[in-house]
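@channel anyone free to eyeball this complex?
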Amino acid sequence: MNLSVDRLSKQYKNKIAVDRISFNLTDGVTGLLGANGAGKTTLMRMMSGILNPTSGSVTADGIPVQTEEYRALLGYLPQDFGYYPEFTAREFVQYIAALKGIEKKKAKRKTEELLETVGLSDVANKKIKTFSGGMKQRVGIAQALINDPKILILDEPTAGLDPKERVRFRNLIAEIGKTSIVLFSTHIVSDIEHIAGNLLMIRDGQLIYEGKWDNRKGDLEQFYMEEFG
Amino acid sequence: MNNLGTLYRFEIKKILKNRVTQVMLVILCIITILEAIVPGLSVTRDKRDARMELNGRIIDDTLLNEMYQNIDDNGHSSTPNNEKYFEICYLEQTSIPGPDNVLADYTAEDMYRAREEQILGYMDDIELSDQIITHWKETMKNEKPFKYIYSCGSLFLSQGLGVMMLIIMLLSALCLTTVFTIEYRQRTDQIVLSSRNGRKETYLVKLCAGLSVIIASTVFATGLLTVLILVIYGSSGFDSIVQLSSPFSTYPFSMGQFIIIQMIIMITVVIMYAVFAMVVSIFTKNSLAVMGMMFGAYLFGELDALSYKAGNISFLRTLMPSYVISMHSLSEYRMLNIGGKLFTIYVASPILYLLISIILTVVGSMVYEKGQVNGR
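replying in thread with the prediction:
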């Protein structure tokens, strides 16, 4: 699969949030680094089809982002992940499965598998409103994976996770990245170092770095502090 | 289809899990029960039994003369036992204007003629067209003489439906305005809109779920009210003419027929309320704003002081659900003229409500499917 972002821009009244960004992604994990307000979330929303760009395009193997076909390939975890307080974890994931068009039997099986994977099997019947921040985030990760997405967009997925959960998450994403396109944004440089084979850096809506990062280029964290500190 | 069924069940769950919905449904049940019981408290069993003695009697000179033996000059019963003439007395007092009239001076023919003159006089006052006046004259030709049937049960049911309409409106405003806004409020819109079935299918499923809840609530409450009324007051009175409850009505209905009309119109009103609450909330993203609009429209329908001189605004008011469902509408003579054909408000209003529902559904679909997550 090839995900193509071509001269994508988003302009609000007096601010350019994303400024003519272009890149191509194939199977594998790509990290998106940038300071607060750099345009990461705006970029990811346009790539998820929930925000119309001012100009430019996003296509997956030629399929435009604003189509049902594209949405069928997509798994998305937003930065400010929302939920229904009165739903249990199981109900929520099953609801998202129905939204994503997954057949009922398969949805039930996948739900149980994913709740096990993210370590929420024991509390699957508890209401999400009773969960800690980390547990809610894990529900978010589970719903993003329910349709075995070919394109997985994760906006600050490790926020709220403790170190153990973060390691678990990294392993999960690394596994998924073998057969899907994964793009995740983060402030935590070590997340990128451990799992991202590819790196995008964005500042003031513009792409300032694209490609692999290796130690010959220096310490990534130091580079990040110099660019965004 | 499988997914749509699952989505539908989850949308119903979202609506019913809402605390406000649960409270409103309980209030609906309580109000329905009170509407069945409370109006009858002012009419004791003795009075009811007394009035039912006259069931089936034609209101003619024989009955009126009998009544005159049992009332004073002011039309009050001369003895408590003669409460049975109360409603006939009310009919005559209303038909024959003037506080100083002695009822006993009038025959049945005088009463019917005076009533008709008042009606035609009012039609002149509100400047009805000749075509409409001719229509009502034709309708009134075969009205008299009236047959008396005691109708407290049917009257209470008819009035109760009007009150229920208000509760259903509040139920729609308070509970269904969250069907779409919940996604915005709970920040689940990002996940929903980015899902395969998150646009067209979700829109349809949400509308269906909202309509299901409100229609089921209406049918339940209406059924409960009807059953309670029948149990408490019996089934007598549903074949009485509406003129006994609304003396200046020119409609050739029985109370039972009027109640059926009310119920049919109620379903179209309920559909319109539900679609309005859900669709307009997509635009406003604010439940309170939509509630305000719905309540404002309801109050507009209650504006009794709005004179016919306000022209189309006044006529528009007569098409508002709160007016159409009420007993007041039985005295509405204005009609809608479309291409030379006349339509009463009982025909025009449900068509209008369904049309509004269809337009809102289509417009809502276009807006929802293009929805974005912006400004957060």
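from a first look: The mean pLDDT of chain B is 90.
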